[in-house]
TrEMBL record:
A GO MF term: DNA-binding transcription factor activity
Taxonomic source organism: Clostridium thermobutyricum
UniProt-listed SMART domains: HTH_GNTR (SM00345), UTRA (SM00866)
Keyword DNA-binding: yes
Segments traversing the membrane: none
Presence of keyword Metal-binding: no
Entry protein name: HTH gntR-type domain-containing protein
Keywords, sorted A to Z: DNA-binding, Transcription, Transcription regulation
InterPro entries cross-referenced by the UniProt entry: Bact_HTH_transcr_reg (IPR050679), Chorismate_lyase_/UTRA_dom_sf (IPR028978), Tscrpt_reg_HTH_GntR (IPR000524), UTRA (IPR011663), WH-like_DNA-bd_sf (IPR036388), WH_DNA-bd_sf (IPR036390)
Lineage: Bacteria, Bacillati, Bacillota, Clostridia, Eubacteriales
Length: 240
């Protein structure tokens, strides 16, 4: 199982073995995995090697340590690191997605968005996104009427990205700001929770390949269920 002559570090092999057992259901969500001592004996490696493997799995949100109890398998989180629709993210992760459209109205463009969206009329869309019957995200979108022709409430139960692309646009990238948010009674209600959960808020714009702004979106995510990866690169000539 563990090849100590391999160029792949031993701790990494142990880490992948543990991940494979979790994926196969040998250790299920919320179950305690084998102890450090048992893993040392099973894989015939040092305790330090096991601790490094477990430490990385904890950092990645796959495992969690509980003092005096052991190491447990975490519930999988929704993970986003590319420009993808929420629908595609959940499909890729194997989750079951349900979308509830709370609001769908054609309104006069809010004054602060007129210069940004360059449209007199916009659709205001408010959607709850549920994954495996749990409310994970609340999205509020303002999108110009011209961007999505023949838009309907029923269509919005699917992918907004797909609707936009069907209207001839190429989604290129998004520009967002990310902040932490304290859960209040309003968010407890819409997320259907009795206890406080951590939230993150993103607010930004999504652009096409011609740098036109397609829509503005404010999204609130449960950060105990959702991970947003941000990759920041240093481009030559920008930072000195």
């Amino acid at each position: 199982m563990i090849d100590k002559n391999s160029p792949i570090p031993v701790y990494y092999q142990v880490k992948e073995e543990i991940k494979e057992k979790i994926s196969k259901g040998i250790w299920k969500v919320n179950e305690c995995i084998a102890s450090e001592r048992e893993l040392v004996e099973q894989y015939e490696v040092s305790r330090m090697t096991v601790r490094q493997a477990l430490g990385e799995l904890v950092q990645e949100g796959i495992l969690v340590r509980e003092k005096g109890k052991g190491t447990f398998v975490c519930e999988p989180k929704v993970k986003q690191k590319d420009v993808m629709s929420f629908t595609d993210i959940i499909k890729k992760s194997g989750g079951e997605l349900e979308t509830e459209v709370l609001e769908f109205d054609l309104i006069d463009t809010p004054e602060e968005l007129i210069d940004v969206l360059k449209s007199k009329k916009v659709y205001r869309i408010n959607r709850m996104r549920k994954v495996n019957n749990e409310c994970i995200a609340n999205e509020i979108v303002h999108i110009p009427e011209k961007t999505c022709k023949n838009l309907s409430k029923e269509k919005l139960k699917g992918s907004l990205f797909k609707i936009i692309e069907e209207n001839g646009y190429v989604i290129d990238h998004s520009e967002s700001e990310i902040t932490a948010l304290i859960m209040d009674d309003y968010y407890k209600k819409i997320f259907n929770l009795s206890e406080v959960a951590p939230l993150i808020r993103t607010y930004g714009k999504t652009l096409d390949d011609k740098k036109n702004i397609l829509f503005i979106e404010e999204s609130i995510y449960r950060s105990d269920k959702y991970i947003l990866e941000v990759n920041i690169s240093r481009r030559e000539g920008i930072l000195k």
